[in-house]
C-alpha cells in the first residue's frame, strides 16, 4: 500500500513538473519573420543588373526569403533564392528577346509568315496535287 501511494505521488509530481516545463517552454517567444538587407545576404554583383535592381528590404517568413525585383519589364516578387535566380535569368531572356524583335531579320520573318497563306493559296492553284500531299509533311 505504501508502495502504491509513493508511486502515485511520484506520478503526480512528474505530471506537475511536465506541465510547468511545458508552460515555460510555451511562453518563450519565437521570431517567425524578420526583415533583412539584401546587401548583407546577396553578393554585390547580384544586387543590380543591366535590366533589374533588387530592393534592399528582404522579408523572411522564418523559412524562405522574399525579394522584390524592379526591372525594365515590371516589378516581380521572388520567394526563395532559387526563385530569385530564375527571375533574374528570365529578365535577361526577356531583354534578349526584345533586342531580337528590333532587328531586321525579325521584321523580315514577320512579313514572310504573314505572306505564308498567300503562298499556300498560290501553290494550290498552280500545283494542287503536290501541295496537298506536302501538307502532312509540314505538320510533322
Provide an overview of this structure.
It is a single chain. The chain is α+β, with helices and mostly antiparallel strands and 140 residues long. It is 64% helix and 17% strand. The protein has helices spanning 2-27, 38-41, 44-47, 81-101, 104-126, 128-139, and strands at residues 34-37, 52-54, 57-60, 65-71, 74-79. Strands 1, 2, 3, 4 and 5 form a five-stranded antiparallel beta sheet that branches. Strand 3 and strand 4 (65-71) form a beta hairpin. It is elongated, with a radius of gyration of 34 Å. It starts with a helix and ends with a helix.
* Topology, number of strands: 5
Q: What is the overall silhouette?
A: elongated
Number of helices: 6
Helix/strand class: alpha+beta
Mean pLDDT: 77
Task: Round the Cα radius of gyration to an integer and report it.
Answer: 34 Å
Q: How would you sum up the major sheet?
A: 5 strands, antiparallel
Please write the string of helix (H) and strand (E) elements: HEHHEEEEHHH
Portion in helices: 55-70%
Please report the distance between the alpha carbons of the first and last residues.
90 Å
* Unreliable segments of 5+ consecutive residues: none
Strand content: 15-25%
List strands and helices in order, with pairings.
Elements: H1 2-27, E1 34-37, H2 38-41, H3 44-47, E2 52-54, E3 57-60, E4 65-71, E5 74-79, H4 81-101, H5 104-126, H6 128-139
Antiparallel strand pairs: 1-3, 2-4, 3-4, 4-5
Helix pairs in contact: 5-6
Give a brief description.
By secondary structure, this protein is α+β, with helices and mostly antiparallel strands.
Amino acid at each position: 500500500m505504501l508502495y502504491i501511494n509513493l508511486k502515485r505521488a511520484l506520478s503526480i509530481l512528474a505530471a506537475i513538473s511536465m506541465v510547468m516545463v511545458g508552460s515555460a517552454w510555451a511562453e518563450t517567444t519565437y521570431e517567425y519573420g524578420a526583415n533583412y538587407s539584401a546587401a548583407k545576404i546577396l553578393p554585390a554583383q547580384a544586387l543590380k543588373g543591366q535590366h533589374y535592381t533588387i530592393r534592399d528590404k528582404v522579408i523572411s517568413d522564418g523559412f524562405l526569403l522574399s525579394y522584390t525585383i524592379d526591372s525594365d519589364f515590371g516589378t516581380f516578387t521572388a520567394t526563395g533564392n532559387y526563385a530569385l535566380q530564375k527571375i533574374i535569368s528570365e529578365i535577361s531572356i526577356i531583354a534578349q528577346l526584345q533586342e531580337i524583335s528590333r532587328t531586321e531579320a525579325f521584321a523580315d520573318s514577320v512579313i514572310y509568315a504573314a505572306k505564308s497563306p498567300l503562298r499556300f493559296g498560290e501553290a494550290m492553284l498552280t500545283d494542287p496535287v503536290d501541295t496537298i500531299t506536302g501538307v502532312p509533311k509540314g505538320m510533322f
